[in-house]
Amino acid sequence: MLEDDKKLARLLGSIPSLGMPVGVFVDSIAGGLVRVDFGEGPVPIVSAGLFEPLPGESVRVLRSSVGTVLLGPSAPRSSIGTVTATGTPKLTVDTSAGSKQLPYLTAYTPVVSDVVLIDWASGGVVVGKITSSPSGSYTPPPAPEPEEQTVEFRAFDSGSYRAGSWWTDDVWVSSTNTGCYFYRGIADTIPDSAVIISVEIYLLEFYNEFPGSLARFGLHNLSSKSSAPSIDSAASVPAGSGWRSLPKSIGNQLKTGSARGVGGTEDGYHKFRSVRSNPDSGKLRIKWRA
Hints:
- The chain is mainly beta and 290 residues long.
- Helix content is 8%, strand content 44%.
- A hairpin with a 3-residue loop joins β1 (22-29) and β2 (33-37).
C-alpha cells in the first residue's frame, strides 16, 4: 500500500464508522470531492450538498457502510442578515450562524444596519438590501373544539310537600302540592365555567287531571326533604312520560350549586312516579362543554 493510501486509510479510520459526525470544511478539490477535517487533518469525501460550505464552517457528514458523504452545514443558515460593518471586498454581516465576512454585489452599496439577502448557493454573497426581515408565515392550527360531555344524574330521593309536611314519595304537582326531586354531585361534576348546551329531565307521569295540559318544572334549593320547598325559574314542559327539555339556565344554576334540585309547581294537576318506584324517575341529562 502506498504511503498516501495508508494516510488516507488512517484519516478515514478517525471518522466514526456509523453516524453523522461533525467536522470543519476545508475546501473543494478535483473530482467533485471536498475536504473535511475531523481533527486528524483534511479528509477527501464526496459532497451531497447543493452548494459549498464556507471554509472553516462546521459541517455534518454521513458515515455509513457504503461510504462517507458531506451533507452540508451542521446548523441551518438564515438567508437574512444585518450589516454591522462595511468594507471592501467584504462586509461584516450578523447572521443566525454568527458574524460573517461576506462579499457583495457591486450594484449594492452597503450601509450599517441594512437588512440584506444572502445567497449561500453562491458561497455566501450579499445580494442586496431588503426592506425588512420577513415575518414568519407559520399559522398555528386552530385550537380543537372543546369536547362535549353528557352526564346523567339520578335523583336519590323524591317527594311531595303539602299542608306543612312531606307526605308521599311520588311527585305531585297541583294547587296544594309541590313535588321535588333531590340530587347529589351536580356542582361537583360540572365546572362553574362550563357552557351548558342542554338540560333534560326524565318524567314518568301516571296521572293528569286535564289530559294534554302542560306541567311546570323549576329549581329548588333543598338538599333533602327538610322544609317547605320554593320553586323558582319554572318552565312549562309537555305532560306525559319521557325526556323533557328544560331551559339551559337551570343547568347554569345547578352547576354552581346556587340551586340543588328540580321540582314541579302549580299548573294543572299532575302525578309523577317516585324514585322508589322507578330509579330513572326525575333523572337529569345535562350536556356541556368546558
